[in-house]
Design goal:
2 helices; two-stranded antiparallel sheet; 21% strand; alpha+beta; 7 strands; extended; plasmid; 3 domains; single chain
Amino acid sequence: MADTLDGLSLAEVRRELALLVAMADSAERPKPDLINPPGHAMPGHEWRVDQRVLPGRRPPLWIVRTVDDEESRDFVYVAEPDPHHHYDWLDKLDFGAMLPIDARRLAMALLAAADRADHLTAGVTRLEDRRPA
C-alpha cells in the first residue's frame, strides 16, 4: 500500500484528521436567541437564523424551538419560511415537528453540504470526495 495520497504522507493525513476531530469536539453549540416564558404558546428555547439574501430583500427567518411542556417536549419544532410569500415572519409561522434524531440528521446533512459548497468554491479537493459512495 502506498503511503501517500495526492502528495500527502500518511502522517500528514493523520495530523489533519486529528486536527479536524479536535475542531469538531471543541465546536460550541449556539445558545438560544430567546427563552419563551411559561405563558407563551410554545414555552422553551428558541434559535433564530436569518438567511442572507440579496440587498434590498427581506431575509427569511428560520426558527427552531424546543417546547418545555410535557405533551410537546419530545420534538424539535422548525418553522421554514416561504421566501416567496410576504408576511410577518414571526406572526404566521408554520412549525413542523421532528424527532430529535431526524433533527440531528438534517443538521449533519446541512453541515456536510455547506462544507462541500465551501470546498468547491475554494477549489480544494477533499479526501472524502475521492471515496466511492
